[in-house]
Amino acid sequence: MDALAPLLHGFGVALQPMNLLYCFLGVLGGTLVGVLPGLGPQSAIVLLLPAAVYLDPVSAIIMLAGVYYGSMYGGSTTSILVNIPGEGASVVTCIDGYQMALRGRAGPALGIAAFGSFIAGTFGIVLLTFGAGPIGDFALRFGPPEYFALMCLCLVVLISLTGLSLRKGLIAALAGLSLGTVGMDLVTGQPRFAFGVPTLMDGVGLIPVIMGLYGVTEVLLNVEAGLKHTLVGGKIGNLMPSARDWKDAAMPIARGSLLGSACGILPGAGVVLASFLSYAVERKVSRHPERFGKGAIEGVAGPESANNAAAQCGFIPLLALGIPSNVATAILLGAFILLGVQPSPVMMMTHPDLFWGTIASMYVGNAMLLVLNLPLIGLWVQVLRVPYALLFPLILLFCLLGVYVAGRNVAEIWIMIGFGVIGYVMKRTGYEFAPLVLAMVIAPIFENALRQSLILSLGDPTIFVSRPLSATLLALAATVLVAQVLPRLRALKPALRE
Amino acid sequence: MIDTVGVHDRATRLDRLPANSIERRGAAFSAIGPAARRSSFGLVALGAAAFALWAGTVGAQESFPSKPVTLLNPLPAGGGVDTAMRGLAKEMAAILGQPVLVESRPGAGGTIAGEFLAKAKPDGYLMGLLQSTQAIPEIYAEFQKPPYSSAEISPVVRYMSLVYAMPSRAGAPWKSFSEMIAYAKANPNKVRWGRTVGLGHPLHLVSYSLMKKAGIQVIEVPFKGAADAITALLGGHIDVAFGVSTTAIAGHVAAGRMMALAIHNPARLPEMPDVPTFKEQGIDPGVPPVYNTFFVPKGTPPAAVKVLHDAVKKAIETPALKEFAAKNGILLYYGSEADVAQELKQDREVSSALVAQILKEPKKE
Amino acid sequence: MRAGEVVPALAWTAIGGAICWGAAGLGLGSARQPGPGLFPFVLGAGIVLLATWHAVANLVAAPAEAPPDRHANLGQVAMVVGLLCFFAIAIEPAGFVACAFVFFSAMFRVLSRRGWPFAVIASALATGSIYLLFDVWLRVNLPRGSWGL
Q: Which among B237, B246, B327, B330 is the top mutation candidate for probing chain A, defined by the most A β-carbons within 10 Å of its own β-carbon?
């Protein structure tokens, strides 16, 4: 517990009035960009960066870090209220969160998301405080073969995300994996499925796809079905989770915290995977899996906890090793360097104020987020009373702007519109999006790790089983696969006999 | 050549005389006279002077800039180049008396921004900071078909250079670049060599040239970016990597988790005095260091080009920008139009030859 | 036969086939040295296989009850898509303010079925507040048309 004394010193830094103010501004800004669909933490950090240069480095980092983890709180709000995720990590929250809202339980859904986020976020910071060094070193043991094995495990878990029809779910997943292969080939540099469009050389962006599939499609479906006056007719129940909700959500929050932390420490795995995996796990272990997709609070509590734990633990490789785990933390790393600090294992010695001050500010920031978000719930649920005809044009415009502003690239808007139409057709024909989105995230990591491994081993496939860590993960994947497929095959048998 | 530059300088100084005055035209022509006689580049000198004169009259119609100037960044916002551009924008705004904005249009290795610049209105209000891939896109056409050509843009001034290093994992059986090469020669297909960029990228050309000139056979592992390669190096999954900026590894080197074997630059860096250049270690990759040069669309009035050039040059000389650059590990590297032309020529020759050589390699499938 | 399942499944088969065709052209390589096309080829083949299976399974299945007809507002759906396309085309040449105002006016008019005065006032308010939020407060520098806004 030799981290206690420096942590206290860190609180001394974080609780200075100016730092408290910047921490508050950061988490407030983060919540806001999280709520706005399409605007992610990376856009927000980039927007604030020029101003941050003029601040004291400690205040600047406290603020930018606050934007990042604050955005994880806000992301779920639109998922729950209007079925449109604020960013990638909240895609899976749409499934049950929106169903809860339709059943008049938007308040408890938002509440449990906020509490779960707070608990998991704090858990992540505790890990960061006491275990950053050793955990970071463990994460480094993941080389290409280990990432390949981990992605195999994710692919297997993906199967359980498929809804009623296994075949249709798998088709959507394969389509998502195929989408993930678009762009310049890592090994040979050849463009794949780019059709001469420069934007597609970098692959299909996740944000335009999500905004298209969820944002645009949702509006199109609602327009087609004929306009209701408001989303939820009349009844909006109580705002806070009940005792029963708490009982249902306690274990998912705990599991989500652990799972999210594990995903967060691995560079590249990240918050999107964490939330999806948590949802799949919750549905698997639940005694009432049939409630999922119909407003199960576990389906909100687990993923929302997982993505916050992952976001906080993403700071472990960043602060302990100087390794960014996603685009947003890469920009944060740039901010560190811009402010004259290179995160590295020696940072806690060379810049104790910055290192411990930032960590302490996260405890403070998380508490602020909880206090900030709980009163906002009352405000957010009023969004449900806004006439549909006013709400949806606004949401569409936020999607359009969010997608455009990130890279000032009109081609991204076209991708979003394209996926809006594709999503509309898919929904009408009964194909799910969730497997597609997750598969799209997995595909490049999976393929690159596979090919890097085979290059490293000069084509010898035993590299995957000769390394203990990757062998263990592969064995785990095989076990989960058998556990998944067996019951489905058993269910198939009587059907075939008929 | 010296004479031409002299005339150009003299002629441009005349810009400050009232426009269309007889003295002014006379002065410009009398300036050409002796230069043309003395120099074997007479025609060039005449051209340059006529150019300057025309520039003078165009500039007189409207004082440039009369509205905000935008600096276009082909790389993602929030990165090192973005930072360097924001530092410059602040100084330029003070010099030009107009706001200077920085706008990022990242994607497709910068060609999205390159195309945007090439197709923009040539009025001098948009200036892009391009690197080799965007400045001479036709070199790389075999890897990525460019939507524009270098004939559609023209250089203004070189602003900075990025220095890339070859880090090695700590605990590797070598202490220097030349030792690593010797090890690789003795143990073919043993050294795991990370590549941080796509095939045919200028940094890959450096990496390729190093391997060919050293005559070594290594396991070349591609990564999706410098950060992934650094992670793999820290974990010991690869031995060396090329194409990592010096600022990204400085902390790891200081912490003893990595060694910096060599840098791709004509001279050592003051912040890393112990790290030699590739040339010092006996292998010169021949590819020019990564340059960041401002370009405008072809057809931009020369007066505007000159104002922009002078503003960047002046900004580079301000103590404020110098201090900002030193603090952020930015290597300011002014280059005049002539320097840039020379550099582009060298880049075109060397890089085209290397690309042709890479394309001749048997395809690994 | 369930046409509602068979037709999309056949479309997926075609998509899978196209992916295979494109991937084969990229170079498949071998299992030990996968080329750029191998992974997409396997994926395309998987789609073809599953989609064909799904199509066949539903060809033989008993027809399901006809779903309720929801095609009432297809015209409005096309209108929304059209407006999104308009935004993508107009945002850079016309600038944000003009573009968003037209977008909102048409949307409010079509979706709310209230008169033009309502649509125009609501659009002006919405455009103005988003402009303030992004351009003034967040300093995003939204695209401007030739008239400076």
A: B237
